[in-house]
Design brief:
Number of helices: 4
CATH class of the largest domain: Mainly Beta
Strand content: over 45%
Helix content: 10-25%
Strand order of the largest sheet: 3-4-5-2-1-6
Order of helices and strands: EEHEEEHEHHEEEEEE
Radius of gyration: 19 Å
CATH architecture of the largest domain: Beta Barrel
Number of strands: 12
Shape: elongated
């Protein structure tokens, strides 16, 4: 069975023809509008929704699903998350892109192979992704996920190497 990953959420209806306002992850508008099928979790089962059209607004997408032609058809799905199989996400990843759940738990080392801590989360400040690193002293540091600072990522070795500039991770 495929693992599903959330790519958006049905926020509300748009107009009376069954179009949905859909929120999606920051900077993922091109990926989101390229998807042809999403799934919603209904009664512990993933139900397929085929995307007929997708257009972008400033902060959300307006999506028309096949077979949903009125507000009443859409209302059962309001506030539901939209999912795609993990393989769909993996196919769209660039060379230096990773899934968040792949990064969480990886150990963090400096360029001299000294263990600094481990990743407990990933967030975004609008400009870049940030790794939340918990150090050996239990302090949490936000590390910009840019090549100048994060010099290497090995999912296989469960290791991230950072250029630990002064004051970054203590």
């Amino acid at each position: 069975m495929s693992k599903f990953i959330s790519v958006g959420k049905i926020l509300n209806f748009h107009g009376i023809q069954g179009e949905a306002k859909v929120g999606y992850s920051k900077n993922q508008q091109d990926f989101f509008c390229s998807i042809k099928e999403v799934f919603v979790l209904v009664n512990h089962e993933y139900k397929s929704l085929k995307i007929k059209s997708c257009r972008l607004n400033k902060t959300f997408a307006i999506v028309k699903f096949e077979g949903i032609n009125s507000i009443n058809d859409l209302m059962p799905y309001k506030n539901n998350l939209l999912f795609v199989p993990e393989e769909v996400i993996r196919e769209a990843l660039e060379e230096d892109e990773f899934l968040i759940d792949e990064l969480v738990g990886l150990e963090v080392y400096d360029i001299n192979d000294k263990k600094l801590g481990f990743i407990i989360g990933v967030s975004n400040n609008g400009a870049t992704d940030l790794l939340s690193v918990k150090s050996k002293s239990n302090k949490i540091s936000l590390v910009p996920f840019v090549k100048a600072i994060v010099t290497g990522v090995s999912i296989k070795d469960k290791k991230v190497v950072v250029n630990n500039i002064e004051g970054l991770i203590e």
